[in-house]
Amino acid sequence: MKVINRSIDVITWTKDDGSIYPFKFRITEDSDERHTYNIDKILTIDEDKILGKPIYKYTCLIQMSNIQKICEIRYHKDTMKWSLFKV
Fold it and tell me: Is the per-residue pLDDT at 34 higher than 90?
């Protein structure tokens, strides 16, 4: 997987216990072109800390150019922001 680490917009659903699940995300390229990807399946959800700050790491399957790819998106709990970390 290639490291991208770009900010993304994410649509999620939340269970009654507070668990967050990403449903689809949108990324804006350098050319201001936007791409939206549905998350076909969440493979893993891990809690971690980066520089002492808590994050959730989601390893997911997405369709990109008609090819199924694995990506890692991250939710930064302290800033409540999402990023596409790897594809």
Answer: yes
